[in-house]
Design goal:
Helices cover 73% and strands 1% of the residues of chain A. The radius of gyration of chain A is 22 Å and the shape is globular. Classes of the chains: A mainly alpha (502), B mainly alpha (517). Chains A and B meet through helix 18, helix 19 and helix 21 of A and strand 1, helix 5, helix 6 and helix 7 of B.
């Protein structure tokens, strides 16, 4: 007869699960409400999601307090790992979601928001991402990844346009391949070391002094493929522009931030110990990958004729820029990654929201895509405030001081300088110059061209409601006055990253 | 109030610009003139309160911005920057006052006020990052001015202007980050403060690389040969006001930055690169003078002559002695006044005829005598005639460089004389002879609004040409301090001998110097 499992409830540390469970409870509640009374308005679901996200944020603040007081917390049979990275990443995930969800309160009615399942799936997705970042266990990472991804595929398809279905299917098939890669990579590491926990894997590999380097490289290659897919590293980026184009602008902005930060955390946990243990192959591949991602996607962005596709390529480029932090691997670089991504999320969500409020239900004759450059011609004449705000986001994305993203770039390039990657620092700087061209292109259209005949400027704010305007205003204020926030952010981030041992 | 006068000088126009959005369209010009007049008065007050016997920084302000990374908001003014600040506020005033009929006048004036904020900011910033912020920010208003009010190729010209300078500045940014990192290695704290950096002695090999990184940023802005190709487009397409501000102030940012950053931070590298840069400067002087001679468009002539004179400023700066550097700073002021005035004058004729082709004109002296006189005075000043403002600067710059190399100075001197040819030729084509073109027969002469802008410039040109001492004294004091600092900091024998040791009464605390290993 089996001996009863004897585990004290306290050692399980169930509280570590609280931040992930709250959105799940919220999602279930939304489904229950829908069963008991159908056809309720989207505003109800938006507010419920908002409340649960705020609760979620509260528990994360709580765990941040525990982390500052007593360091890293493990829980649930040591599956959960609540360290500084997990807390910071969850802040970004939940914070960006808080900014995203009110974007559903559009003026025009869109298909997806009439389904309560949209909001339930959205909350499931968030808990999936939270699981991904708050664990050391490859299996739990995989579960979180799949929960989040499957929910995300559905969210894209719910936009209910031909292109959305195309995008969802494309994302799904490619994502399935990436998931396969991830499980293959995990399997190789499990076979090598007998563990699925990253710190155990690191310990075992270090103990036998990387004797089976060949197998390690095979496993790494698979993991690189799957993580590269998630952060859209070239050459695993091909899905990005199509998927962004197919999904609604708001969701595209969301996708450019949240899934990527989750993937960055995984990359940080897995790749940094490998690079630090002298797996030169990985360092070289990452170096090449980072440079090619930054440069090539910038080149592609130059020739786009649609603003959303341009932003898609630009977000690939930003991801490449940030991936450099994983390569450099110092505390400063890892802190720079978080700083950059926080500032980026403000700016990029703002930019995509500007596209979102100008999204028409039916395209006029002369306009081929939702957000072609022509649509924005002469915007300064018809709606000056909107065009100034849009220009602000573009300048910030280009890295013009003193707007938000400049400080991220500054700190990131500085970390490359201090890490001894001089050439990389120069490449990063020059890429910012190339990128400036396509951001300027939109500014040129907005400020220096004549408006299309018959355009009275209404189109730019066609979807605007108070909620959307406040989100954009919030992003704009954050972008302009980022400099005030940089110092406290930097101090908190650096302590958290340093105390987590990265 | 004087404790914060520099912050007020920076943010007053910006705040006024924001308030300007609510002002009704027809009243905006008066508002713009009022704001820029107050700003100019403040700048004059700064001069009045400025103690010209002190060589160091005055009116310093310091606020911590990002202490974790050593970025602080530090401002200060010395003899080098003082007059450029006054010039910047003066030209904004003149520019707004003389603004002709412009579409979207409100946008233009608000843009000019924001531009003024960035210009003042660049010249008073004593923290590299704050400097960089204003340096980059100044591109945006200029991009808009050229791109929205310019000629047919305005979009190309404005984007080229932006991207060219942006690229150079990013390389400079990497240099700044390296500099801060070396400072961190030497002292254990991050700092971007220029005055802290002054105390850092770098090994020569580091200096050589960092000098190059900063050089890209500054040389593109100046613009030095071979990075000058954006300038003719920018000038050619920009509206009059854009060209005036660009030539008078924005180009000075580059030469000012050479004196503020490159020379005192990298004295050995400055000596090492002295001759290559001098050769570039002389190519710049001769080549652009020749190109100017070939132009058919009077504005392009002025634009290329402006590049040509920037070459003399660079030459004076890299003389690395008190005469040369003081001369180059004085020439920055002079060049600002003169080329600004010339662009204004070109604007006058463009407003009347909507063409800038010299072949369209001829015999204008008969039709517009006052215009011809003003143009004549400014043209003489541009050529560098004695008793005009440019002569003082050019003479001192060349005198300074004469101590370093006789041959190169001789070449530069001849080039300047040759440079007079194209100006005189252009003047002849436009003003002398008989009126051949019917359209020119009844052109009205300079009107009051234009005179308001031009007369003060003429007065300054002659006053400072005859009696430059009020400016030269404070400039000299600050330059002496810099040259002494360079001499003390330099490590190679070559640099010690090239940079004169002035005296020992300017103390530099050697104890705080630490060498980077």
């Amino acid at each position: 007869m089996l001996a009863p499992v004897n585990v004290s409830l306290e050692s399980l540390n169930i509280m570590t699960l609280a931040p992930m469970l709250i959105p799940i409870i919220g999602a279930l509640l939304i489904l229950i409400i829908d069963i008991s009374k159908a056809n309720l308005d989207k505003t109800l679901y938006v507010m419920i999601s908002l409340l649960f996200l705020l609760l979620d944020l509260g528990t994360i603040v709580d765990s941040a307090g525990i982390f500052t007081a007593s360091g890293i917390v493990m829980g649930v049979f040591d599956m959960m790992l609540i360290d500084g990275l997990a807390i910071l990443a969850q802040f970004i995930i939940v914070g960006a979601s808080l900014l995203f969800i009110p974007l559903a309160l559009t003026h025009s009615r869109f298909h997806e928001f009439s389904y309560p399942e949209f909001f339930a799936l959205f909350l499931f997705m968030i808990s999936g991402f939270q699981f991904m970042v708050a664990t050391d266990n490859l299996i739990l990472i995989f579960v979180g990844l799949e929960t989040a991804s499957l929910a995300l595929y559905t969210l894209i398809a719910m936009h209910n346009r031909d292109k959305s279905f195309e995008a969802a299917v494309k994302y799904f098939t490619m994502g399935a391949l990436a998931a396969g890669f991830f499980s293959f990579g995990s399997m190789v590491f499990y076979a090598l070391t007998g563990s699925v926990e990253i710190n155990q894997i690191a310990a075992v590999l270090a103990a036998n002094n990387y004797a089976d380097i060949g197998y390690v490289l095979i496993g790494t290659a698979f993991l690189l493929g799957s993580i590269g897919f998630k952060v859209s590293l070239v050459p695993f980026h091909t899905w990005t522009p199509d998927v962004y184009e197919g999904s609604s602008a708001a969701l595209a902005g969301y996708m450019s931030i949240v899934p990527k930060i989750a993937a960055f955390i995984i990359a940080m946990r897995i790749f940094e110990f490998l690079i630090h243990s002298g797996v030169v192959w990985l360092e070289v591949i990452l170096y090449v990958g980072v440079v090619v991602t930054m440069t090539a996607s910038n080149m592609w962005a130059l020739v786009q004729s649609d603003v959303k596709r341009m932003l898609a390529y630009s977000s690939i480029s930003h991801a490449g820029f940030v991936m450099a932090a994983i390569l450099i691997g110092t505390t400063q670089a890892n802190s720079a990654l978080f700083l950059y991504w926080i500032l980026f999320s403000f700016t990029n969500l703002g930019a995509f929201s500007m596209l979102w409020i100008s999204r028409q239900k039916h395209l006029p004759q002369h306009q081929r895509t939702d957000h072609s450059y022509d649509k924005f011609a002469g915007m300064i004449k018809t709606s000056p405030i909107a065009s100034v705000i849009m220009a602000l986001f573009m300048l910030s994305l280009a890295g013009l001081p003193p707007f938000a993203l400049f400080w991220g770039k500054l700190y990131m390039i500085s970390s490359a300088v201090t890490g001894g990657y001089t050439v990389l620092a120069l490449i990063m700087a020059l890429n910012s110059a190339i990128a400036a061209y396509y951001y300027l292109k939109l500014i040129v259209y907005m400020f220096m061209k004549e408006p299309v005949v018959g355009n009275d400027g209404h189109v730019y704010v066609i979807n605007a409601t108070l909620a959307l305007k406040s989100i954009i205003g919030f992003a704009a204020v954050g972008t302009i006055f980022a400099i005030i926030a940089v110092n406290p952010l930097l101090e908190v981030i650096t302590t958290f990253v340093y105390n987590s041992g990265y | 109030m004087l404790d914060h006068i520099l912050s007020i000088l920076i943010f007053f126009p910006a705040l006024a610009g924001i308030f300007g959005f609510v002002i009704q369209k027809d009243s905006i010009r008066a508002y713009g003139i009022a704001v820029s007049a107050i700003e100019f008065a403040l700048a004059l007050w700064l001069w009045f309160a400025f103690d010209s016997s002190v060589s160091g920084m005055q009116f310093m302000e310091q606020i911590a911005l990002i202490p974790a990374f050593g970025i602080n908001y530090i401002l200060g003014v010395d003899g080098i920057s003082l007059f450029i600040i006054i010039l910047a506020s003066f030209f904004t005033l003149i520019g707004i006052a003389s603004l002709g009929e412009t579409k979207d006048e409100k946008n233009m004036i608000i843009t000019l006020l924001f531009l003024q904020m960035t210009m003042i900011g660049v010249f008073v910033a004593l923290d590299a990052i704050v400097f960089y912020v204003f340096w980059e920010l100044s591109l945006v208003p200029m991009l808009y001015i050229i791109g929205a009010w310019g000629g047919p190729l305005r979009v190309y010209a404005s984007v080229k202007f932006f991207l060219y300078t942006f690229t150079g500045s990013l390389i400079m940014l990497v240099g700044m980050l390296f500099m801060a990192y070396f400072y961190y290695q030497a002292t254990g704290t991050w700092s971007f403060a220029i005055l802290d950096w002054y105390r850092l002695i770098l090994p020569e090999s580091f200096q050589l690389w960092l000098f190059v990184a900063f050089f890209f940023g500054f040389a593109i802005k100046v613009p030095m040969f071979p990075f000058h190709t954006w300038l003719p487009y920018a000038h050619g397409q920009a509206p009059t006001i854009g060209s005036v501000i660009l030539a008078a102030i924005l180009l000075k940012m580059g030469t000012y930055a050479f004196i503020r950053f490159s020379l005192p931070l990298f004295p050995d590298a400055s000596v090492f690169y002295m001759f290559p840069i001098a050769v570039l400067a002389i190519i710049m002087i001769i080549y652009t003078a020749m190109v100017a001679y070939a132009q058919k468009d009077i504005k392009q002539v002025v634009a290329y002559s402006s590049v040509s004179h920037m070459g003399v400023i660079i030459l004076g700066t890299f003389a690395l002695n008190v005469e040369g550097i003081s001369g180059s700073i004085f020439l920055m002021i002079g060049h600002g006044v003169v080329s600004g005035a010339l662009f204004l004058l070109v604007g006058v004729i463009y407003d009347r005829r909507h063409t800038k082709m010299m072949s369209e004109f001829g015999g204008l002296a008969h039709v517009m005598p006052r215009y011809a006189t003003l143009f004549g005075i400014m043209m003489m000043a541009s050529v560098g005639m004695p008793l005009t403002i440019n002569f003082v600067g050019e003479f001192l710059s060349l005198l300074g460089f004469y101590e370093q190399s006789h041959i190169l100075t001789l070449l530069a001197g001849i080039a300047i004389i040759v440079g007079a040819i194209y100006m005189l030729a252009a003047y002849k084509k436009m003003f002398f002879g008989t009126v051949t073109n019917e359209a020119n027969k009844n052109l009205p002469d300079v009107n009051k609004r234009e005179l308001v802008a031009l007369i003060p410039l003429v007065l300054i040109t002659i006053w400072l040409g005859v009696y430059p001492k009020p400016l030269l004294e404070p400039i000299n004091n600050s330059v002496e301090a810099i040259v002494q600092l360079m001499h003390d900091k330099s490590i190679t024998e070559e640099a010690k001998s090239r940079i004169p040791n002035l005296m020992s009464d300017i103390e530099i605390t050697r104890t705080s110097m630490q060498e980077v290993h």
